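Weekly modeling sync, notes
Attendees: S.R. (lead), two postdocs, one rotation student

Agenda item 3: backlog of single-chain predictions. S.R. asked that every request posted to the team notebook include the full sequence so nobody has to chase files. The rotation student volunteered to paste the first one in as an example of the format we agreed on. Action items at the bottom.

Example entry:
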Amino acid sequence: MYNCYLRLCGAQIGKNVRIYTTLIDAPDLLNINDSTFISSDVVLNGLSYQDTTYELNSVHIGSNCSVGDCSVLYNGVSIQDNVYVKSMSSVNGYIPSNTLSHGQQICLNEQLSSSVDQTNLMFQQQVYQFVCILLIVCLNSVSVIITYLIYCQFLCKIYVWISLPVCWMIWSFLCILFVLIVLKFVIGHVPPGSYPLNSWYYIHKIWFRRLIVSSFSYSFAILEGFHSFNCAILRWLGAKIEEGNNIMIGRFIYSLHCPSNLLTIKDGISAFDEVRFIASDILNGKCVVNRITINKDAQLGNYCLIHSGSNVPAHSVIATMTRFTSETVCKDGDILLGLPARVMPFVSPPVDQMKINVNGEIFTFFLTQLVAKFTFVLFGLFCMYFVSNIFILILLFIILYSILLCLCDRLCTAQMSKPGTYSFDNIVGWKRRIVVRMFRDYMVLIGQFIGGTQWLIYFFRALGSKIGHDVLISDIGNLADHRFITIDNHVRIKSPAFSIQVCGNFMKVLRKCM
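Predicted structure, as returned to the notebook:
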């Protein structure tokens, strides 16, 4: 169905093509031949900004190709047949056939072959995929109906500015519950092995898992943050996680993309924002699934990729934007950086463990969620009281809520206005958590409408970023750590997958405090 949608938008998509990315800016310039696999968050960039103009270039991908997660294809790229592009690669220009590409490094790979017989889906399998999509729609509908019934039975007599945030939370938890039940009892465990892309096993175990987790991704946003009960959920799903409260997983949703029984996590690890566990690699029309092991006291930086078969050593640090695979050679205590991961001549300081009060953490979790959503709903009702026109209402709400969010962020970070080392409470204290929840809701519900506009520039400036004139930023997620960001004049930040972070300070803070 997604391929049909892209064809309606003007893209030329061949047969048996699997596309898991939505980062396509010019579909009518996209040409993908038969039996090609495009992984998640691959940027297919056909539009490039210049000083005062923009340039359009075609994106051509041949047959039997595989493009890894978070890769960027741009500047008129032309990939021929039987090409394997590794994850996080930046590719442009002409890529010859039967090669393995990692950015500008291209090497011949005789193991690459045609995979038409292993990608062609039967009619029954296509019907099964359609039924899975209908199941997603039914689960969403049931969660809304149950929430409405609870509201009519118990909450209708309560003030609406209290009942709506509670219903919002109930709906989110119902969606999470449905997803976890499907993952546990319908999809189940996935044994290591190699499975053709047109096998029933792959469609049910891997494809359906990606579909249901990505479809309910917003509901899982309430579980984002360093919560110990995330580990309890993974244990229930089958992951091998050591007992203890020292395991920190920042973005919980990405750990669900990986089959839980293939994930082994030892005590003391820290996985920061958007760490991706990729338990399946696609090559020659087959999905190779293997285990992932994270040993004691390992630290995984923002946006790093941990591929199938990886065994991350104890006390090691995987830096931001680093690709760790089964071929990575390292030992305990190493610091790794780069694509692919390489050992750096640095020494990691000793880490003091920190115990967390789980009961207090759960109370703080529910409190911060309710306060953030209560604030969002209250501001919406406040605007509705004064304005009846829907256009003016939305505009007024965006302005007032943006001002409130900037003020709250400035107050919470007033003591952290300069780079340095701060206490753990400054980073994940309850006040800061409320602001983070508010910002997440703002990104999902408002941020997608102001991307690429000057309002986003004003918003970043109000958060503390120093941004010059004639600057274009396409997505609200392009900047983090706003008070430490300086952007000069005439800058274009286009890709929604691009992010500027002062992540080294954040990792240093948590490493010293934990």
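Discussion: group reviewed the output briefly. Residues 271 and 300 are 5 Å apart (CA to CA).
Action items: rotation student to repeat for the remaining queue; S.R. to check formatting next week.
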